[in-house]
Design goal:
Strand order of the largest sheet: 1-2-3-7-6-5-4
Number of strands: 14
Oligomer: single chain
CATH class of the largest domain: Alpha Beta
CATH architecture of the largest domain: 3-Layer(aba) Sandwich
Distance between the termini: 62 Å
Number of helices: 9
Structural class: alpha+beta
Helix content: 25-40%
Order of helices and strands: HHEHHEEHEEEEHHEEEHEEEEH
Number of domains: 2
Radius of gyration: 23 Å
């Protein structure tokens, strides 16, 4: 065997060993402990005819701004643990590049949050990871606790093929604990628009007291309605959030009405041009927002309350 062949075999064995370490290093919370091994696995995914520019880099919450200044706060709000980054360049034309970023968000819920917040509607869906899509030759994928971004310098068919091959390789070596994202099943499926669910760890709907909140869009006749849902630690905590929501509506809107329909107790908020409706069900706080028709806002809120299941 030639020296080059021996070197390639050694590199493959090292890659395999580190992959095994990553598989064996799953903690009780489903989080991969050996995320520091990602640079070696990323190196092994270099497209044929391409090379790594500089080196594979990793960023922590403390220095993420060095790579994505101005956008770092977004990922840190979802408790990012580590970001692995590499730029591949065409060996024959180094102005052509493909950037790969892998964000370890710690949990599938946090990873879904950043994926859902950046998701563009109407793009080509991918059967990779738990969800993904392609925009031109750029790829965005959610798998377990990871969010993957592949950004290409060109949108040609060739770049699409290379990007797709890279996306498949990366999703293959990243593990998924299988931990479920609560809001995806808690929000009623009837009339829910595909790919409309989003998760906000903080400041949902621009409200600083709404944390760990899911939103989704529902089609009601010819009208699209935004619904929201959040699970609190206790029924008392949920009630406190309803009180704060009502106080917010009184301060910034035109007033509130307290309504009751059977077992359902609602707070209808006139926000001046649109209506929010908020309710509590056990540990859950939910409702609808930005609905122009007051009657519709109340009907949809009641429907949502009735379909929610308490755990």
């Amino acid at each position: 065997m030639t020296s080059a062949g021996i070197l390639q075999r050694i590199l493959r064995l090292r890659l395999l060993a580190l992959t095994v370490v990553a598989v064996m290093s799953i903690g009780t919370n489903g989080q991969i402990i050996a995320s520091k091994s990602l640079p070696v696995m990323v190196t092994g995914s270099t497209p044929k005819g391409w090379q790594i520019f500089d080196e594979v880099k990793q960023f922590t919450p403390e220095n993420l701004y060095e790579q994505i200044n101005g956008r770092a706060a977004f990922f840190l709000a979802y408790d990012m643990i580590r970001m692995t980054y590499v730029r591949f360049v065409n060996s024959d034309e180094t102005t052509q590049f493909i950037n790969l970023s892998i964000y370890d968000m710690g949990t599938p819920t946090n990873a879904f949050g950043v994926f859902s917040a950046e998701r563009s509607q109407g793009e080509s869906s991918l059967e990779l990871g738990r969800a993904g899509y392609r925009s031109d030759a750029n790829y965005f994928i959610w798998k377990g606790q990871y969010y993957i971004r592949i950004i290409s310098s060109e949108a040609t068919d060739a770049f699409q093929r290379i990007g797709m091959d890279l996306a498949q390789k990366v999703t293959d070596f990243l593990l998924d604990s299988g931990e479920q994202v609560w809001g995806l099943t808690a929000l009623p499926l009837t009339d829910r628009m595909p790919e409309s669910v989003q998760y906000f760890k903080v400041d949902a709907m621009g409200l600083d007291f709404m944390r760990n909140t899911y939103t989704a869009t529902y089609r009601k006749g010819n009208t699209l309605v935004t619904a929201f849902l959040s699970q609190q630690d206790s029924a008392e905590s949920a009630q406190t959030k309803v009180v704060r929501y009502a106080a917010y509506a009184k301060k910034y809107g035109k007033g509130i009405d307290r309504l009751k329909a059977g077992e359902v107790e609602l707070v209808s908020c006139d926000m001046g041009g649109s209506y929010d409706v908020v309710y509590q069900k056990g540990r859950l706080i939910g409702g609808v927002s930005y609905v122009e028709d007051r009657g519709l806002s109340i009907r949809v809120a009641i429907e949502m309350w009735e379909k929610l299941r308490l755990e």
